[in-house]
Design a protein that fits this description.
199 residues; 9 helices; 4 strands
Length: 199
Amino acid sequence: MWRNKGLILPACLLSLNIRSVHADNHIPPPLCGSSKIPLANDPLRRTCLRQCLVEGDQIRPTFDEWAEFCRETSDSQDWDQDCGEYFCCLFGCSVYGGDRSMCRQAQGRARWDLLQEAKAAVLNSGITREQRCTYEKCHAYCARSALDTCKETQFKQKCVASNLQLYGCDINCGGASRMQSMSLAVLVSLFIAMTHYCG
């Protein structure tokens, strides 16, 4: 921890100012760093991976970093609730078996094995473009329905950057309509507050 003018900041946040973009592929290093210590034994990295920080027009950590955090910690008794909602939603899609109860009922190592097998199935080199599109549509649906705005925006960032439309996938990366309606609700609330206090 670092203290300055009454602020207490985790070490993973301090590194934001010194991180640079790799010149060859323009991808910054992981926000929360890398470690040989398992996440189960690293509360600082677990906390860092659960957050959302806005850096310019990007939200970090990336959705992939968060998803890997979910998979790596899926054998813990106190598995992150957002992880559970999102990953168990995936198993409700037909491409993952169409049965959320598989994920909801699995505990400990059985849940970890289930998520690793699902990841391997998606990364299988024999998967067609159509199948990959179906998988990604399931991920987009679950990001919209199971996650909060921050994680949903992380997913949208990843989805848009993957350019799935280039090979004919008609995926809706999501988020825009919900965020627009939230913005309208915030504006209406501000207007009501202003008329109450200023009127």
